[in-house]
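Appendix B: complex inputs.
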Amino acid sequence: MKSNKHQYLKNMTTLKLDSDKCTGCGICTTVCPHNVFELSAGKAGILDRDSCMECGACAKNCPFLAITVDAGVGCAFAIINGILSGGAPSCDCDGSSKKKKKKNTGCC
Amino acid sequence: MDTPAGKIPIVSTVLTRADHWGTVRVRLDIKRNMYRVTPGLYAVGSPTKDSPVLVTANYKLSFDMLRKELKKINAWIMVLDTNGVNVWCAAGKGTFGTIELLKRIYLTKLKSIVSHNTIILPQLGAVGVSAYEVSKKSGFKIIYGPVQAKDIPEFICNNFKATQEMRRISFNIFDRLVLTPLEMVHTWKLLGIMFVSLFLFNLAGGEFRGFMNILNQSIHNLLFYIGVVIAGCVVTPALLPWIPSRAFAVKGLLLGVLWSGFMLMYPQGFGFAAYSLLYKLGHAIIGAVISSYLALNFTGSTTYTSFSGVRKEVKAAAAPMLAAMIAALLFIAVSLVLLFV
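Resulting structure:
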């Protein structure tokens, strides 16, 4: 399965890397589950943009705030929920919403 | 066992039949939101102050997945309060996050239990936890371990270094198939609504042929829609990488169209034979749209769809889906009316 990596829509990610702030610590290459980053010549670079799923782990763990991404869940149910309720996307998986009975579909 | 911070429960690394049965039940969404472990510190084996600390969520399935991999290992397990949600999803919401981790380090008096200053987090926890902030505020250094618990023994042997392989998330056919029962279970309400609608359509459709006949016909009709659900919830996830298009709505639509086409070719198998082509076409369209919608919903279960991507797909798919549904209902209504003209 490793050779045929799953591919989602192209050119969508909001991932941005500011090379001036990067010190090449490499934490982004550690936390990224999709091998988006690579280290070369003491700096991180974006190797595989289209594999980014905007989970936000890199931005959250970069001590130098060199990475920004509009992080969120890639879950249609959560996004539809957000549009319908006019709030933030939420899949209600933890029953945190007021409607306790509500069931989420899929995800978590 | 006794520690400077009080008694700490020792947990087994062998799952019992009850644990396995619980796993089957949560996969079917039976009391899934109740499947929790009390947050706090646990011991596996006979850990000492030098033993590693492994952090997980309080979804019992996550906890079980971790402890069953720790045979012959002495370690501490720190369970965070994530409202019974797994590590990755909870991290996405921030419940498996910096604040909860800091709070749990404090509440469990971890500093008095271990003499080292490192804690091991599952890599996917990085979505919610900021390692540098935790170390700044608690003095504990975070090491991100492998994505999957099964790699932990090797990771520990490897002097707490995860290989490239351990860092990448896989989503093979087995990973996907294990999720499908849950997707199916969530459609029972939809199928219930469909069944009632089909019954009413059949009731309206021409002369009254007796209750049992109408029921029988509706059950046959429902077989078509059960097939639709299987196309969207099982076949699409199973064949995911091999179905053309990157968009999930299109993948589901393709399979839905195939299934609807099959129904149009063999309408007698689904109790549609007595109806006009327009009526059958109406159901064929509804079937294709439902399959597309269910496939789009599977984005929430995948490991690689992005927020921006799914948002784009939802926005692009909503209008055509709605239009197709309205058209299909019109087809059905018109064909039913035509029966009386």
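Chain A touches chain B through 52 residues (CB under 8 Å).
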